[in-house]
Amino acid sequence: MTKILGIAGYYHDSSATLLVDGKIVAAAQEERFTRIKHDARFPRQAALYCLDQVACQLQDLDAIIFYDKPLLKFERLLETYLAHTPRGFLSFLKAMPIWLKEKLYLKTVLRNEFRQLIYQQRSIKENTSIEYQQRLDKRPRLPQLLFSEHHQSHAASAFYASPFDKAAVLCLDGVGEWATSSLWLGDGASLTPLAEIQFPHSLGLLYSAFTYYCGFRVNTGEYKLMGLAPYGEPGYVDKIYQHLINVSDDGSFYLNLEYFDFPTGKAMTSAKFHELFDGEPHGFDQTPTQKQMDLARSIQVVTEEILLKIVNHAKLQTDMENLCMAGGIALNCVANGRIEREGPFENLWIQPAAGDAGGSLGAAYVAWYDYFQQPRDVEDSDSDTMQGSYLGPGYSNDEIELLLESMQLPYQKLSGTEKHLTAARMLSEEHVLGWFQGRMEFGPRALGNRSIIGDPRSSKMQEVMNLKIKSRESFRPFAPAILAEKVADIFNQKKSSPYMLIVADVLNEHLVQTGRELRGLEKLKQIRSKYPAITHVDNSARVQTVDKKTNPEFHALIHAFDELTGCPLVINTSFNVRGEPPVCSPLDGVNCFLRTDMDYLIINDFLLDKSLMPGTAIAKARTVGFDLD
Q1: Which domains, from first to last, does the chain contain?
Q2: How confident is the model over 332-361, as a mean pLDDT?
């Protein structure tokens, strides 16, 4: 067997992926284990998890591959500073020590980390300390270490995991080494680069500039900006085109860098940007005003228009029927919906871990197909290789029961059918339910295994879940998970959307009259459809279709809810609270359940009722949390 470990890290969303003979065995983000959101450190625990899935010692791997090339990134950094000198000199002085100490010598840093992993694996196997293993150090042999380019990793994660033998591949993000947008041709086991746009001209960084200016954090707040956009009007579109970006008919573009500070400064936007939009950036996490809503809507419209031009050009360049996408911009599900409905391609497939976390998967594929020169055989044109993106850890009933006993928490064990019927009844009574099943999802979305779920028909559920459970901004919408066979009955969506990456409108027959049109956050008060908890203020929803084959447990739950209520969908949001990554382990899930206002938790086959939980356990979870390690 050929075993390849892909690694992404040191910027944001570190992750690890293990391929065995070209098949995905495991993939996970480091944040899920460390509980540090967007953890950028070396993905030690994610790598250990992957290796543990096949009882593999690190030195027995055939190759390890990193998802980008730091020397090329360093070249870009130096050339950018030189091009803008003396502007940005203080930023240069701050960046250089980090590069000269670590990032420029990343090969050495990685090798040291891999040796630490070997010592850790040995210490676990032999029941000794890591320090003891280090004292026995015989300089263990390391597998060969390879490097992929950043956009090559994105492209590989999109194409090789897709169900297509041939496809155009688009990668769009902030920046890799140099590339910010790239077009590739995927054919069998090969990926050929066709075109790219280079830093500092970046659609991702343009969107992030507005994220920053509207009071959200770059790399973590872009989805908030997308959710805010429907509350506003596109009043700034002309100003953006006139001053910030020049766009050609083929979708190529360049930015007017006078308005941005990101190439060499500490901020995203410059004083000239602030002057153009009449004020300093909005305070972080402050309640948005109509201005921020209008700015969000405007940059969303501009982004969608540019993407449609890029997609149309990609069709002309490749003459393909299929399009694959990856990179952070591919998580803009509103734009994805327009690309699917209005674009020229017959089929669209988007990597569910489209951001940097998916880079570890793409890099592993680069090693398999490019370095090891393996053939590729697409077995099923209707099925990708992502296994529903359920690639993280799973836990047995015995492990969970032992945990609940050790925490001295009352529980009830349910049979399979009883579990789904009980969950359906609880949802129909407007209870909020934690749902923890099977293997954890890889990527940013909850897809039904680490989810908080509710009744989409409830007019109060969005507010309850946003404020009392998730502790997040009131304006953010919730997504529906719907039986795949019934999606066309509710939404303007005929194709599957298993990874919650497509926004579609609720069909007119399910809409209700709203009366007088309100502005801004006042729109939250209006009920717009029979499913108010998942219908955004523009009558849209970010749809996840649930297939019986891919996730039988989640499908059975929604089917039971449909049988009970006539509603074939539920609210599905990630199992976490604001500021934390989604839960990974049963302990994470129980802690999150105890310290929020969730009513029930179903974890594998066990039911926990909040009203029966000991007050001391709830108090502990809400202060320091349980830690049984």
Answers
A1: 3-66+102-147 (3.30.420.40), 163-353 (3.30.420.40), 397-623 (3.90.870.20)
A2: 97
Return d(Cα 436, Cα 424) in angstroms, integer: 15
Nearest one of 279, 276, 288, 303 to 216, comparing CA atoms: 288
Pairing state of beta strands 569-574 and 479-483? Answer: antiparallel
Query: DSSP secondary structure string, 574-605?
Result: ESS-TTSPPP-SHHHHHHHHHHS---EEEETT
Residue 408 CB neighbour total at 10 angstroms? 9
Query: On the CB side of 406, how many CA atoms lie within 13 Å of its CA?
Result: 13
Q: DSSP strand E in 471-539: where?
A: 479-483, 502-505
State the amino acid at position 264 in one-letter form: T
Amino acid at 295: L
Question: Max alpha carbon distance in the chain (Å)?
Answer: 76
Q: Quick check: 84 pLDDT over 80?
A: no
Rounded Cα distance between 110 and 51, Å, is: 17
Residue that has been written with the tokens 């990685």 in this structure: 110
Q: What is the dihedral of CA 74, 76, 77, 82, to 10 degrees?
A: 130
Within a 13 Å sphere around the CA of 533, how many CA atoms are in the beta-carbon half? 25
pLDDT in tens, 113-124: 999 999 999 899
Place of tokens 């690694």: 7
Could you give the CA distance from residue 596 to residue 398 in angstroms, rounded to a whole number?
25
β-sheet with 166-172: strand ranges across = 190-198, 179-187, 166-172, 322-326, 347-350
Q: Label residue 133 by pLDDT band (50, 70, 90).
A: confident
pTM: 0.94
Cα–Cα distance between 485 and 524 in angstroms, integer?
30
Distance of alpha carbon 333 from alpha carbon 152, whole angstroms: 22
Distances (CA, A) of 80 to 84, 87, 492, 510: 6, 10, 45, 53
Is residue 626 within 8 A of residue 590, CB to CB? The reply is: yes
Angle at 444 between CA 68 and CA 111, to 5 degrees: 30
| Bridge partners (DSSP) listed for residue 247 | 253
Q: Of 534, 537, 533, 532, give the one whose Cα is nearest residue 518.
A: 537
